[in-house]
Structures are given as structure tokens and as C-alpha cells.
Amino acid sequence: MSAQVSPWYAHAVQRLAAGPAHALTPPARMEWSTHPGLGPGAEIIGRDLSGEHLLELGCGSGHNAAHLARYHRARVTGVDLVGLQVRRARSHYGHIDGVTFAAGHALHHLRATRRIFGAVYSVFGAVGLVAPELLLPAIRRHLAPGGVLAFSVPHPARAERHPLPDDRPREDYLTLPDRTRLSLTRWEFDASRWAAHLTRAGLRLTSAVELRHPRLDPWPTTLLITARAR
Fold this sequence. Notes:
CATH superfamily: Vaccinia Virus protein VP39
Number of strands: 9
Shape: globular
Mean pLDDT: 93
Radius of gyration: 17 Å
CATH architecture: 3-Layer(aba) Sandwich
Strand order of the largest sheet: 3-2-1-4-5-9-8
Distance between the termini: 33 Å
Helix content: 25-40%
Structural class: alpha/beta
CATH topology: Rossmann fold
Strand content: 25-35%
Order of helices and strands: HEHEHEHEHEEEHEE
CATH class: Alpha Beta
């Protein structure tokens, strides 16, 4: 599906219609879930990121990329499928040294770039939305030895769901700002199935953290995975 008719494009259009994008101060914390302050921050990527080249797959409005560039002195490339999102990210954080934003499909960007990254990360981004047997090996080819892959995805058991017993994607939906829902396809695995996919791609699972808001969510809503290049 092209960006022009995707749920992500519709989401960006509604966000832009709600108010013009303008310059922002980067957030003081990196977020992995929809609840600010829940779970770890940038430390799971690395304790010293100064000068490291990082890649975000599905950067959205650019908040996390800008945080890493401003507060950790990393050099961050944020990639998003939807050009409108990239425009918003540039409007918000184009003034921040060390961060750049590019429009494109995650796989296409990985196939086109020659850069090796100290870490690749995705926050409800391309990981889980692109076939893992294609995306994970492509990520591994651009990770330095010992480099980190970190990603958060919707928890497969959220809202009393049950993880699928195989590698097929499942139908899900994206809730737009106006509360309408548009369907999409998502790969939703538990930690053991993610570990198997990571192993096949030459990556080693190092942690799997379930996140849920202690007052608002009776079930875990986010699965946060970290892995290292072998």
C-alpha cells in the first residue's frame, strides 16, 4: 500500500490539520510506549551515545531522534514512510544539530545506504509492520559488531488477545486522532518467537520487557525488545 492511501498518511493529515508544525524543544526523555515516563529510556540503546550513528525506522514527528541528538550527542537519521511526517519532524526539529530526517520505506532506505550504525531502533515503527524475515536481516547488515537493535511493538496479549501460534501477520487497526479506525497488517509475536526471528537474522535477544500502565492498563500493552549483532 502506498503512503498516499495508508493509515499512516491519514494519521499525518489529521495531525497536520489540527495545527501547523512549529519548532519544538526536544523532549528530555526517550519514550518506548504511549505512556510518558513508563519503562526505560535511551539507556537501553547505550550508556554513551556521543558521536554514535543511530537509525530510527519510523520516526514519526521526530521526538525521540531529536532527544538522542540533543541530550546524548548522537548523530541520528530518522526515516519515515510518510513524507508529511518527515515535514512535521523537520519543522519541529530541523534546528537541532546532529539529526536528519528522510522519507522512504525502511527496507528501501536500508538497501540504499552504506552507513553502519551503532544502533537501530523502532518505536511502534517499521519493526512489526514489515515482514521480519526481510527487515531483520537488512538491519543486521547495517549494524556494527555488537551493535544494538531496540524496538517496541504492541504487546500480542494486550486487551486479552492471544499471541498467534505461527509467523503469519494479523489484521489490526490504527486509531486516528478523530477516533476513527483504519485497518493494517502487523506481525505480533511473543518474546520467544521474536527471539527465533532475531537468531535467524544474526542477532541475539538480550532483553524482553513488558510494559503496562499500573493504573490504566490491566494487561501489558507494549513489548520492548533489545538485541545485539553477533
